[in-house]
């Protein structure tokens, strides 16, 4: 804790003139970058911890959704956040040709054998798709479980909406609803 306090004091001294924290305007503008640097420093520190203490710290960091991460990952998160919160610009005129809605198949290594069946259905209907293995990404696993309302993997998402697994995809393809959802 003392080490963290020393880091905080030294950064405040270099930014704010030495007597206290930076001005509220400056603090609000630089805060996310400063916090990211602190998170990256903490991530490097827990990566260097030896033995069971290091393992426990890394497991805790992962269980909490990786609040401590390397600088590259934190910068990627900030860029994603900026894109997600950017206001959408209204389209000047509707396009006559509609683009295909994004179709993503999420799976984990345990369910890998079911994925080719889904891909066959999508391919037979001329649907472009992406396949995402979420085995190593606990945050993505949690988000997929939440958004799919607990459906068994692999699951198919069309335009951000969970349509289900193999049976649901077969039903959509048989009724023609699959092409309507994807191509409009």
Describe this protein's structure.
This protein has helices at 2-16, 24-48, 51-63, 71-85, 115-124, 138-147, 166-175, 177-183, and strands at 103-107, 130-133, 155-158, 161-164. Strand 1, helix 5 and strand 2 form a beta-alpha-beta unit. It has 184 residues and is an alpha+beta fold. The protein starts with a helix and ends with a helix. Helices cover 57% and strands 9% of the residues. It has a 4-stranded mixed sheet. Helix 5 (115-124) runs parallel beside helix 7. The chain contains 8 helices and 4 strands. The protein has 2 domains: 2-85, no CATH class; 103-183, Glutaredoxin (3-Layer(aba) Sandwich), CATH 3.40.30.10. It is elongated, with a radius of gyration of 23 Å.
Lay out the secondary structure:
Layout: H1 2-16, H2 24-48, H3 51-63, H4 71-85, E1 103-107, H5 115-124, E2 130-133, H6 138-147, E3 155-158, E4 161-164, H7 166-175, H8 177-183
Parallel strand pairs: 1-2
Antiparallel strand pairs: 1-3, 3-4
Strand portion: 5-15%
Q: State the share of residues found in helices, binned by percent.
A: 55-70%
Number of helices: 8
Total domains, how many?
Answer: 2
Tell me the structural class: alpha+beta
How big is the Rg?
23 Å
Shape: elongated
Give the overall average pLDDT: 77
Number of strands: 4
Can you summarize the main beta sheet? Answer: 4 strands, mixed
Low-confidence stretches: 16-30, 91-97
Brief overview:
With 184 residues, the protein is of the alpha+beta class. The protein has helices at residues 2-16, 24-48, 51-63, 71-85, 115-124, 138-147, 166-175, 177-183, and strands spanning 103-107, 130-133, 155-158, 161-164. The protein folds into two domains: 2-85, no CATH class; 103-183, 3-Layer(aba) Sandwich (Glutaredoxin), CATH 3.40.30.
């Amino acid at each position: 804790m003392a080490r963290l306090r020393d880091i905080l004091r030294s950064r405040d001294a270099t930014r704010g003139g030495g007597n206290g924290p930076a001005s509220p305007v400056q603090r609000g503008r630089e805060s996310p970058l400063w916090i990211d640097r602190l998170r990256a420093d903490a991530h490097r520190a827990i990566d260097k911890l030896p033995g069971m203490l290091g393992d426990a710290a890394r497991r805790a960091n992962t269980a909490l959704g990786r609040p401590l991460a390397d600088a590259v990952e934190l910068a990627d998160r900030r860029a994603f956040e900026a894109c997600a919160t950017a206001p959408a610009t209204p389209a000047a005129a509707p396009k006559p040709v509609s683009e295909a809605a994004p179709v993503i198949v999420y799976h984990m290594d345990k369910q890998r054998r079911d994925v080719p069946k889904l891909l066959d259905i999508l391919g037979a209907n001329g649907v472009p798709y992406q396949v995402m293995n979420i085995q190593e990404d606990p945050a993505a696993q949690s988000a997929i479980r939440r958004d799919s309302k607990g459906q068994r993997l692999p699951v198919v998402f069309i335009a951000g909406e969970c349509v289900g697994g193999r049976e649901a995809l077969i039903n959509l393809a048989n009724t023609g609803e699959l092409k309507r959802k994807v191509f409009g």
